Amino acid sequence: MTALRLIHGAAALTAAAALTAAAALATTLWTGVEGRGTALAFGVLIAVGELTRWNGPEARQTAPLGTAGSLAYALLGADAGHPARHGAAQIVTVVLAASLLGGVPHIWRGRTPTLDHLARRVLTVGFAAVCFQPLYARGTFAHWDGPAYALLLVALVALTALCDAVLAAALAHARARWPFGPLLREELRGLLGIGSAICATGAVMALAVAVVGLWALPVFCLPLLLTQLSVRRYAAVRATYRQTIASLARATEIAGYTPAGHARRVATLSLAVGRDLGLTGAELTVLEYAALMHDIGQLSLVDPVRAGATAVLPRREQRRIALLGGAVVRQTGVSPAVAVVVERQADPYREQPLAARIVRAVNAYEEKAREAGPEGPLRALEELRLATGGDYAPEVVEALARVLSRDCLLLPVAG
Asked: Closest Cα partner for 190 from 171, 206, 173, 166?
């Protein structure tokens, strides 16, 4: 029932965006396009922004230039001193048409990130336009001086960014069924990065076009394009770094100490459990790296443990392997927090950081489920639940059960 409610929630947001777009298109076709040159210029800008959209896995804002251009058009009151007479309906129509046009190559290559991107764009731009354009058309801001008007645009941009963050968190909550609160906090933290640059560029574009005209668009686009390029390069470096860690983690598999794919499976499941428990951002990065490298200490063993199942070893041996693994991790230049998680896997769970509790429980589950045959997942989870008194954190085991049931990897088990 919960899953159905979440799916219906995502469908409701998408339907709201579709109705908004349909109403805007019908109104624009009925009334015609005002300021066609301005509409064309902003449409080209938004389309170019979509063409340069970044589809990387770590991209929080996939099309910063298109987003900034959309905000600027929604908050545009004048063009070179002459009043701009476009309304909210025309703004939504132009933004939607340009976004679709710029997204054609991505759709053709199969890299489109579903309808959520367009739904957020339509709803956030519509929100900004409805808040600003009717009041501007009535002359409410006619006597506002420069600083007051600029502060007004900044306030509207901030509200629009907050609206977009709520929509993004709601859609991610509906699609992936992760907790809404941590998702919203992560989206809000993301506004401090490239999100702030997008908001500032959108506000400055609207102010500049009002004074000097459309020639301001290419001038103020360049800094955002350079920022986007820098963020993409940083993400490429991080992706290479993660691949290096994943390759190092495979050393135990290549040497025959652990089964093929064990580290990757533990990392994937640990991330899901971490998200269920509310971890975000840097915490998830530490958790992923530690999960990938949690068995690296086994390389110190003369005789490999059967199937790499360290959970069945005596506590002293587990502790030794964990400490050796942490020492190896520290030599790689990874964050010391990752080494701490690896080192403390064998500690009593009440003394462990949350990431170490997660890696320990997920690793034990993966080992037990692999060895127990067709009924392995159910039996492994029950064994973990029976051991929550001393070996595994109860909240982590229950989060693991929720993740497995939610992803249809396990039949629901009564708690």
From this structure: 166
